Amino acid sequence: MVTxxxxxxxxxxxLVAVDADGTxxxxxxxxxxxxxxxxxxxxxLAPKNGQVMKVVPDRGVLWSEATGWETQxxxxxxxxxxALAQGPIVEEQANLLExxxxxxxxxxxxxxxxxxxxxxxxxxxxxxGLAVSSINLAGEMxxxxxxxxxxxxxxxxxxxxxxxxxxxxxxGNSKMAAAAExxxxxxxxxxxxxxxxxxxxxxxxxxxxDEKLAVAKGGDLPSAAGQVxxxxxxxxxxxQQRLKGACxxxxxxxxxxxxxxxxxxxxxxxxxxxxxxxxxPAIIKGLYPQVKDPKVVVASGENHLQLIEPP
Length: 311
Hints:
Blueprint: E1 5-9, E2 13-18, E3 24-30, E4 34-38, E5 43-47, E6 51-56, E7 60-66, E8 71-76, E9 82-90, E10 96-103, E11 109-116, E12 118-126, E13 129-136, E14 143-149, E15 156-162, E16 168-171, E17 175-180, E18 183-188, E19 193-197, E20 202-207, E21 212-217, E22 227-232, E23 237-242, E24 249-253, E25 256-260, E26 264-269, E27 274-279, E28 284-289, E29 296-300, E30 304-308
Antiparallel strand pairs: 1-4, 2-3, 4-5, 5-6, 6-7, 8-9, 9-10, 10-11, 12-13, 13-14, 14-15, 16-17, 17-18, 18-19, 20-21, 21-22, 22-23, 24-25, 25-26, 26-27, 28-29, 29-30
């Protein structure tokens, strides 16, 4: 799979590892609903019972840690550092407490950041640190915030604050992009920032190289047809393609941009040409490109996986 693929399950079940031919490698019974993330080499699994565990395809579970808190979601860095968004729990005087916990690749606890009266909604690792989008619930009106957390200390820096909520984050090699409604907030490693306004709500973001950003735009209604746009960091639109339905998944890798609506997977070149498309007979539930080759795994329906090999 590609870095930072998120997996969630709303019920208990069985985690199954399969190879490219569909052969089962191993099975692991999961007795609780869970969230997970994969970087193609490993799977970090966090059941709702507070456990977190590292799973590798050819060996199964390597380590497991009891955190005591329910994990909402998690992300992995390129070096294997794990960040967990956990909570909320209710403190005295009805304060809500959430936290971000960091673990090393070997399962060693590193540091914890507490968020009071904040709801964490997005996380993404930066080259040095973790970008966290949250909703500040302390005031009369909720406010959107983006923080930069250190994975090895309690240092926390506020990057952005606004009435609008940041609902998409994408981190590149030299810049970070955050989307709130129809605006994209860009900040480089020096802290210099600017805003690009697109005029339509941004549904998702993905970096296509250092200076280009793939953007999924939504329509006026949730069911309206979506659009995939490639823009430069100064806001210049390179090309735009219309999807049949609303964009549900957006992934960029090397010279390819992948998008999916409810039933169709689209592959575009970096120039905006349509490479290929695949129409699924059932609702698409996941889009998982392979790391080392152009194949793509499509999850659809209730329990169907299909390996797509582009023409």
